[in-house]
Amino acid sequence: MQAILLAINYKWETAMQLTPQLLPSLIQAIADAVENNAEEVTALDQAIGDGDHVINLQRGIQALMAQSAELSQLDWVAAWQKIGMTLMTTVGGASGSLYGTLFVAMSKAAREHPLNLSTFAEIYAQGVEAVKRRGKADVGEKTMLDVLVPVADSLRQSSAQAVELPVALAKLTDVAFAGMEATRDMLATKGRASFLDERSRGHIDAGAKTAQLMICAMAAVLIERLTSPA
Ligand code: ADP
Ligand code: MG
Known about the structure:
Layout: H1 2-15, H2 23-36, H3 38-48, H4 53-71, H5 76-90, H6 93-112, H7 117-135, H8 145-160, H9 165-182, H10 206-227
Helix pairs in contact: 2-4, 2-10, 3-10, 4-5, 5-6, 6-7, 7-8, 8-9, 8-10, 9-10
Bound molecules: adenosine-5'-diphosphate and magnesium ion.
């Protein structure tokens, strides 16, 4: 019994160390995930978009890498605001303003609610709501939202059920993967792919693929951090 209590205390203490000092590792993990899958994602975007999605994202990721030392010294409210502004001004394309909106809205939500593990699910969900409004889109339209929305639902569910953080992170990676896969058979009704109408079916959406890659890359860093001894 005491061992269990110790383990829980240990995890709680470790979870409290999830500060923006993790941002350099998170950004590096995202950069690697996008780089390692660049050809595949570009092929997807060439099939039903204009083929620039990876280049757009990598411009933003490079800018974040250049700022990562500075970002690591901020609190989450300031870090998310800065990340959002950087993505908005560097990524371009539809995804730039959408990811920019996600982080700026998360910063705003975190300003209103004191940040802790149980409020993060709500903060992220508010960020995703802002993306929906900005893109005038919702789940089922073959976009990044088909990953972002189920991940928000999964986080909320895990938080309501008081699931341990590493388990919650493992769950949301499964959900992100399933959301990305589900875009293959969808009809695109938003973004450039919608111009293809029925011909948009049969290809995974590039933005859903990169959302899944980036979320899974961050989750892997966090799981490693939470479960390996300090
Ligand atoms: P662009 O389409 O302007 O060239 P990108 O290639 O960088 O921009 O990003 C395309 C991705 O953005 C799509 O694959 C899709 O996931 C996402 N997207 C496009 N329009 C919307 C929208 N209205 N709402 C949500 N996501 C969108
Ligand atoms: Mg594009």
